[in-house]
Amino acid sequence: MSGNTTGVLFRVTTWGESHGPALGAVIDGCPPLIELTEADIQTELARRKPGQAEASSPRKEGDRVEILSGVFEGQTTGTPISLIIWNRDVRSGDYEALRNVFRPGHGDYTYEQKYGIRDHRGGGRASGRETASRVAAGAIARKILAREGIMVRAYTLALGGVKAEAGIVAEAGRNRFNCPDPVGATKMEAALKKAQKEGDTLGGIVEIIVQGCPAGLGTPVFDKLDADLAKALMGIGTVKGVEIGAGFAAAGMTGSQCNDQLLPSGFAANNAGGILAGIASGQDLVIRAACKPIPSLTMEQDTVDINGNPVKLTIGGRHDVSVIPRILPVCEAMVCLVLVDHLLRQRAIARSSAE
Questions:
Q1: Which domains does the chain have, with CATH numbers?
Q2: Which of 315, 318, 294 is closest to 303 using CA atoms?
Q3: What is the mean pLDDT of the chain?
Q4: What angle is formed at CA 71 by the lines to CA 70 and CA 72, rounded to 5 degrees?
């Protein structure tokens, strides 16, 4: 199955399934002499792992990562880095009733149409569990970005229709949604509990801010920085929409409203979200991702089996009520991977020009 690798110079391949023995990632193109330990990766994985809150999946995975190659005496060697995360709390029997039934909103039907075979145990590669590999790889990319003074952080802007009002970013770390609006965070918590009680799920909006991104990253045609960021985020199973800067709101603006005028002191605004003509302007990157509700409901739904017969389905197993807040480190990881890849590509151009 193709489509498991991303990046040009900083290449990441993820592997493994939700109910397989393990999952992991191979990172090729990481520069040497980057200080890296398993603890660096573990910090990010801890933000994503299940079982941390009432509305989170009760699946108990420690998500302990092991570095198998590419690191010697605490530093990267420039050779492929291989990571493995063992699955410890697998209950495949919970999915036996779904062996011949297509779950609404999942990839069951499309996987069957494409490959003629699918792993019904938690969705296989289509499971959100696969994102642990991305977060692990993203932790390495984050280490590289930190050396350049580039910081990537995601926030919750909306959950279940509850929108955060303008708030102080420093407040975000004080609630589990990483929402800058503490009042909004309280309402989000109430909405999540209500949906859980009703057997339903909720979607939301994540905003990712990148500070310190140097001007010049990206290219003006097919490998635009914003295009690659959008593709990376859309590659997350739950994401159904991505916007940069003013995004869809730009369609309702006039040109004079939308343009970020330049002054001797810098840009007067940032409707472009830090990217012009596919190339970073040096301003903060502002990206938003719309996440759909988790499709696994305890409410009864209509579907069909592999023979097209109608089925009334109630999904059991262990599932989150919303991908938020566990999706935040996943979004950050994908942005980090894109930025490091473009950073290395820009350096290659600079070296070539100097020769």
A1: 5-354 (3.60.150.10)
A2: 315
A3: 91
A4: 125
> Do 87 and 21 contact (CB within 8 A), yes or no?
yes
Omega before 325 cis (within 30°)? Answer: yes
Q: How many CB atoms lie within 10 A of CB 243?
A: 19
pLDDT in tens, 128-151: 899 999 999 999 999 999 999 999
Reduced 3-state DSSP string for 39-95? HHHHHHHHHHCCCCCCCCCCCCCCCCEEEEECEECCEECCCCEEEEEECCCCCHHHH
The per-residue pLDDT for range 179-230, each reduced to its tens digit, is 999 999 999 999 999 999 998 999 999 999 999 999 999 999 999 999 999 9
Q: How far apart are CA 108 and CA 96, in angstroms?
A: 14
Distance in angstroms (rounded) separating the CA atoms of residues 113 and 127: 17
Is-above-0.90 flag for pTM? Answer: yes
